[in-house]
């Protein structure tokens, strides 16, 4: 039986959202605020790199310079600073912080169901709800352009996603708290779950997109990371992507001691049943791993464990968590360890978070570093954006927008957001205008970094 929400209470939250329009009109969200004359995107990226592993920075720039979309994936700091300068609503929720279209994907739920959800939370923090949607919308515009779409097609892709977010947040605002909390996109029931949200034609496109992602690449990647030796399974090195641990870490701890310390502290953040399960695995090897685009240069390790025997391998990923670009751009510091911030944000926004998700902050001398830990390659799969048609990109954008609306509604502010957005297309058109403007800003930044590489201001791996 569904919980009954007093209509007056729902109306009150809806009304508070409408009142937000006086302070920040929805049309104002189309505005891309000008940067200070002294703002240098290359200098900002170099500053960010000062807090990362220096030898990996050329690889980071190489990955960012593959295309304007790849650059956008790595330039979350630049966009967060641009968003902070512009008009913002005062409706603050837990946001992903880097909700571009490649940070959604398929993975296994604890019940071993394949689900579709946001899958990257390095930048999660509290922030204006529309930041996530602007990040998603701009990535859709850039992807559409990369696929050959003109400005009309780009606008259609973005407008469709913005309108889907608007429709979905209205629906979630009227659902009971538990219905919102447990709503998820089970891949096997995807078309049933979305019926009523999408037309039959759009559902077919969604199905095509998801089926493309349900490949065996995750299993293959998992198996390729293991080499079998006389002493048992070990991690297969593929420098610079998977490499041996450095002999020494920062401060007084070796890298291996650091990982051991993180594992011990991390275990304490798991539930008692997961602690018992983790205790049934034995760590046998560890290595450094390079992942993604935006994360390149942060300390990232993988640990190979075995369970029942050598034919029962299990990987954990230990990933450094730094200050989020959201907090840096907003100038708001939270009194919580960065690893804990990532874990708490993921558990709030994701419908089925990893049961092995935990965190630990360690200290070596005067240096404090925070990490989060999760399973690696748990039936993960992502959509190959370059293989999509324009219609499939539109369908994919709408699914991502549905997921984002559900994630934001879990913070309890769905009715307030819905009240602010209203039922007309003012908000959707504002987001579309912003996305097209920021597509141009991203291209200019990309070209500036290309020039910086040619001039020698930054080193790029060959």
Description:
This protein is an alpha+beta fold and 462 residues long. The protein has two domains: 10-216 and 383-455, no CATH class; 231-375, no CATH class. Helices cover 48% and strands 15% of the residues. It has a six-stranded antiparallel beta sheet. Strands 2-3-5 form a three-stranded antiparallel beta sheet. The protein has a two-stranded antiparallel sheet with strand order 1-4. β6 and β7 (232-235) form a beta hairpin. The termini are far apart.
- E-strand count: 13
What percent strand?
Answer: 15-25%
Main sheet summary = 6 strands, antiparallel
Total individual domains? 2
Shape, per Cα inertia axes: globular
Mean pLDDT: 87
* Count of alpha and pi helical runs: 18
Helix and strand content put the structural class at alpha+beta
Query: In which range does the helix fraction lie?
Result: 40-55%
**Low-confidence residue ranges:** none
Give the termini separation.
61 Å
Rg, Å, rounded: 22 Å
* Strand order within the widest beta sheet: 8-9-10-11-13-12
